[in-house]
Amino acid sequence: MAQNGDPQKYNFPIPKVKSNPLNFSFSGLKTALLYKIRELSPNEIEAKKCTIAASYQEAILNTLFRQLNNVISITGIKQISIVGGVAANKRFRELSEKLKDNLITEVYFPTSEYCTDNAAMIAIAGYEKLKKGIYSPLSLKANPNLPLNDGDIG
């Protein structure tokens, strides 16, 4: 949908986390999209959905490239691999060419057929745990900072 829109039409914020220059959060960006949608009528949303998508995508990509530039300047790395579902994004691939040219950095993408989201993997992992009777109680609170090990998940 974003391919048919104007990525410069709406100025969505570029998220930053002040405590660490390498961290970022999309929560403010998601809120900005919510507010933009709220100010438009259903007919306007339908008429402008491609441009809204393109502008929103551009803000996300600008954030990712800002962070890549930060990492490159701090570490001096010369090779980057972009993987997962985001690696299938055509605009991301297009803009990465500028990164390669401007920073003398090699950026690698797998072929599109191997750029998949991890949702299916997470679903099957959950299914396998459920079959073994391993699951969290419904009282479990959402916590984006849970550890990635098998320790206590509180």
The largest sheet is: 2 strands, parallel
Look at the helices and sheets and give the structural class: mainly alpha
The general outline is globular
CATH level 3 topology: Nucleotidyltransferase, domain 5
What fraction strand? Answer: under 5%
Query: What is the strand arrangement across the widest sheet?
Result: 1-2
CATH superfamily: ATPase, nucleotide binding domain
Gyration radius, in Å? 19 Å
Kindly state the percentage of residues in helix: 40-55%
Order of helices and strands: HHEHEH
Number of separate domains: 1
CATH class value: Alpha Beta
Determine the N-to-C terminus distance. 40 Å
Account of the protein in words:
Helix content is 47%, strand content 4%. It contains four helices and two strands, in the order H-H-E-H-E-H. The chain has a two-stranded parallel sheet. Helix 3 (90-103) links the parallel strand 1 and strand 2. Helix 2 packs parallel to helix 3 (90-103). The model has no long low-confidence stretch (mean pLDDT 85).
